[in-house]
Amino acid sequence: MKAALYREYGSPNVVHIEELPLPEVESNEVRVRVHATTVSSADSRIRAMRIPTGFKTLSRLIFGITRPKNQVLGSEFSGTIDAVGPDVTQFNVGDSVFGAYEGRGTHAEYFSMAEDEAIEHLPAGFTHEEAAALPFGGLTSLIFLRDFGHIKAGQNVLVIGASGSLGSAAIQFAAHFGAEVTGVCSTKNVELVHSLGASRVIDYTQSNFADEGEHYDLIYETVGKVPFSECKKALKPGGSCLMAVAGIPDYLRMLINPIAGSKKLVTGVAIFKKESLSDLKKLMEEGAIKSVIDSIHTLTDITKAHALVDTGHKRGSVVVRVID
Ligand SMILES: NC(=O)c1ccc[n+]([C@@H]2O[C@H](COP(=O)([O-])OP(=O)(O)OC[C@H]3O[C@@H](n4cnc5c(N)ncnc54)[C@H](OP(=O)(O)O)[C@@H]3O)[C@@H](O)[C@H]2O)c1
Predict the structure, then answer these.
(1) Which of the following CATH numbers is that of domain 2-134+291-321: 3.20.20.100, 3.90.180.10, 3.40.630.30, 3.40.50.1370?
(2) Torsion angle of alpha carbons 190, 305, 52, 207, nearest 10°?
């Protein structure tokens, strides 16, 4: 099978296509024939070892000290079940599925994962490209807003980075949960962010949200560019700033914060589990969330997809079509 490999950390040019043997299937695993996957911001970070402050050593221990241990990137996928292990009960060969594989390896024609991980049947009305574009941003934003932020109807919510994969999902979820939503993005994305459900959009090239005098119950910072000290100015007393990108200093601030005041910094790592994917699937079926696709590339063109993600200005997800 064809797969996109990176044998060293670095620029998009370290990624190239190679032939690999077809992955085996353990007794509790399914093998997926990948129709579509994405190059996510996490794939770009890991490939380049561009890691938030203080986590570099830990990341090298996880992903490989001098070179990558697992040489195929990719977590989001949509495809067809190609083989099942003898103990698999939820899936059959030929089923259309989608999900997010924490083990990574979806930048390939086939990969295998356990059936109790984040894999579900494809929701009706979604193409493979649309379904592959949602789990990374959708699951992360669902976990941050619902599980970490306890979002409630009627709250005033600000999403910074509203046009990215996390932000575009967050705007839609926050509106669906009944919040009053404001998005922050650049001029070219203002219309998109309005169309996703934001009642107000702030163009960060024209004005700074913290100077506008508006106060929020929740600020979801998905870009890693606005520090907590700045977000704090626009939080209501008792409000929370949810930071998707955080270094060790932010984790320390989260610990000491309850002593320092009522405005909270909340961060963490979104772990993609089957239960959250099932919730995401329901929201997709209810029409609460739709995919935002920046562009679609072929597997052989994946270097271009990496370069696009590296700019930090993609809209939603950069999809890679693997098998038509
Ligand atoms: N903690 C976790 O568990 C977790 C999980 C997943 C991802 N993450 C992290 O979350 C981050 C975001 O991921 P993503 O996939 O959403 O990234 P992305 O899709 O690349 O987001 C880029 C978006 O950020 C916007 N942006 C850039 N500079 C901005 C600024 N100064 N103000 C406001 N918006 C700005 C861009 O919009 P414009 O083009 O309009 O500027 C673009 O749409 C990544 O760093 C990723 O590593 C964390």
Answers:
(1) 3.90.180.10
(2) -20
